[in-house]
Specification:
The protein is built from 6 helices and 25 strands. It is α+β, with helices and mostly antiparallel strands. It holds the Pfam family Beta-barrel_RND_2. It comes from Pseudoxanthomonas helianthi.
């Protein structure tokens, strides 16, 4: 049996005993964590330093050829202005003070729409007077009719009595004369009533003249009067009197007027096709047609005026805009039947040389470009005719830089500006 000291020795912890070896599982966990951290750091470094930097470029759309683009050639160029054949400065028919103006510049008005009203006090007073005069004339007619009825009854009664020799012939003659006088008086009263009725209608017109209405549908281009000012159809009162309420233009009547030199007017014929280009929108080609050659010349400028109809109606076309026009050679009927427009119209700046071949870069999905080989045709001003390689609606890079390659990423210049 062990003694107490021996039992205590058995309970003592041996500090010199060897520690157990570390577990392999913990080692693998630490290595895996380190690998994941290195991978994340590598991806971040590539995103910051290794990502492809897009090239900033400008683009333009490819336009499909319209009928006549390739077959018609310009025989004469001229400049002119957009004008309105139907334009009016609307004024009141009477002189009066403006009470209200109901138009603003740029507003569209319909035919008969109220543009302004004048102070109607004088016109209303004149109408009230004319109405009273008409009522008095009607009363006079009624009174004469009553007296005439009595006179006719007296004349009829005396006619029977004179035949029976109960009254003298003179009494009967006096009754007949009184009856005829009242008939004449009734006719005069009826005519006076008609004159009064006409005066009332004229007074109504005078009241209506205090309302200024649009003579036709159009757009207001100028507002000339303000409430409180005096307007007149004539220049009464000098500079203190307005002669108009506002100016309206029928936008459907817009056309182009150009001056063509006398030496070249023989090239222009009615119904001749024309291509018009507004100075404000140089890339917009508007189809047009010659309306007429005005049969007179300007002695000072040695020019002849030509009217041109625009075949396109657009809010961007406004009066007095500058226009450049090209008179086109009409296509021959057999050419129109056998030749159809081919290819597309591309800005010449979009065509580049790669390995001795004409190419263009089309912007696709994710702003990456596709290099396409082209078959080019005629030069059309600042554009080129491309017979194959592109189609209408493609978006091509203008002035592609030398470092731009197939599949390269680009960034639009307008996007970069933002």
């Amino acid at each position: 049996m062990n003694s107490s000291p021996d039992l205590l020795k058995e309970l003592r912890i041996d500090r010199k005993a060897a520690t157990p070896p570390p577990s392999r599982r913990g080692l693998w966990i630490r290595l895996s964590i380190a690998a994941v951290v290195l991978l994340v750091l590598g991806i971040g470094a590539w995103a910051v330093f290794g990502r492809e930097k897009p090239i900033e470029v400008k683009t333009a759309p490819v336009v499909a050829m319209a009928s006549g683009d390739a077959s018609s050639a310009s025989v004469l160029d001229a400049t002119g202005y957009v004008v309105a054949r139907r334009m009016a400065t609307v004024s009141a028919k009477i002189t009066g003070k403006v009470r209200e103006v109901l138009i603003e510049e740029g507003q569209r008005v319909e035919a008969g729409q109220v543009m302004a009203t004048l102070d109607p006090i004088d016109a209303d007073a004149q109408r009230s007077l004319s109405r009273a005069q008409y009522g008095a004339a009607q009363s006079q007619v009624t009174g004469v009719q009553a007296r005439l009825k009595q006179a006719e009854a007296d004349a009829a009664r005396l006619s029977k009595l004179v035949s029976q020799q109960l009254v003298s012939r003179s009494q009967y003659d006096e009754a007949i004369a009184a009856r005829d006088a009242l008939r004449a008086e009734l006719l005069t009263a009826q005519r006076n009533a008609k004159v009064a009725a006409d005066g009332l209608r004229i007074a109504d017109i005078g009241v209506d003249n205090t309302v200024v209405r649009a003579p036709f549908a159009g757009v207001v281009t100028a507002k000339a009067a303000q409430p409180g000012e005096i307007v007149s159809p004539l220049s009464a009162g000098g500079g203190f009197t307005r002669t108009g309420i506002g100016t309206i233009v029928d936008m459907d009547s817009l056309e182009v007027e150009v001056d063509v030199g006398e030496a070249f007017i023989g090239r222009v014929q009615p119904k001749m096709p024309v291509q018009a280009t507004l100075n404000a929108y140089p890339d917009w080609k508007i189809p047009a047609e010659v309306i007429a050659v005005i049969p007179t010349a300007d002695r000072g400028k040695a020019t002849v005026k030509v009217r041109i109809a625009l075949k396109s109606r657009d809010p961007r076309i406004v009066p007095e805009m500058g226009v450049n026009v090209s008179f086109l050679e009409p296509a021959k009927p057999q050419q129109q039947a056998t030749q159809q427009p081919q290819g597309v119209r591309v800005p010449a700046a979009a065509i580049a040389q790669r390995d001795g071949q004409d190419v263009a870069f089309v912007v696709g999905e994710e702003d990456r470009v596709e290099q396409r080989s082209l078959k080019t045709g005629a030069t059309l001003g600042n554009d080129r005719l491309v017979l194959s390689g592109l189609q209408g609606g493609d978006n091509v890079v203008l002035d592609p830089p030398a470092e731009l390659k197939d599949g390269g990423k680009v960034k639009l210049a307008e996007d970069a500006a933002e």
